[in-house]
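*** Protein under study ***
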Amino acid sequence: MRRAYVILIALVLLTIVFASVPRGVAMLEEEVIVLFDESHGQNLTYTLRNFTKAIDALNGSVLEYKPGRYAKYLVRILPPNATLNYSTLEGVDIVIIGNPDQNASFSEGELSSLVNFTEHGGSLFLMCDPQLNESVYGEMGNPMELNKILSALNISSVWFSCNDSLGDAIFNENHSVVQHPYFVYVNRTEFSNETSISDNIKRVLTFSSSIVVKNNKCIVATGDNMSYAIMPNGNYTFQNGTKPPWLAIYADGKFKVALCGSTVMFSDLNVKGLEKSWIDVEDNKILWLNIIKWLTPLPSPINVLNYFTIAGSIILILGVASFLAYKIYGDQRKLANFLPYRKS
């Protein structure tokens, strides 16, 4: 009976200790701040209500970005009258920059701030859009300005396809939405298995420009063998059969950058011919979240004081239980030794 009391006391004390452990410690949950840039004339924004679903799917969500590691994502909007600087980037973990307006530009101060941001472990998600001879949604890609960011970061292994001010668009007449050969389906087979970005992807729908990649390890997804990329002036950037990349990454151990040739594919705009939002079609939303999870910086070292506290509490509990067991069994032995003499 006394042994049962000792075990019961130990279990109660352990329950109290673990109930007092913060949820964030128990789940290794981090808080990740995401800054969504609307300060460079973007046409697809949360404020304009045409890029809300992707932001809402992320903001406030708790996602497992690595096995056993969870992050709660909080999104800040950088408004049109603001700039990327030390103040607006303070405390931010990931910066998302959608396709800038044709008349927008990144100042030297902004580029310097982004360099400093990445040097301290921040991640970037850069999204372009295609350039066509016809107007589909009224947008045109601005790869030159996005490439200025890559140049400032000394990244030369990946960049958005660009010739002077011209970007391009990826076409595929065989795997596309009817009458829209630039709305291209991409199957799982065209995704790399090297990163978690491809997790749970079966098929996505793209409306994208291409990306020039000098290191194949940077490629995440391409078009298939029937895809090609062409500029509005008719010059090919990728011939048929060359599988133009449209999603790529860069990582140097200190920071990460993801490049996507499309902002539209994650927007609330309707896919012409399907009448569904781009973000809701196929696995586009899964891809959006996968990219953000991959970009999530490794957390700061876990507060070891929490674990020392837990370990110390467990040791104390075991010590108390051992002491109680010793006292109980010791008293029982003394009693057992004493009883025979009383009988005699």
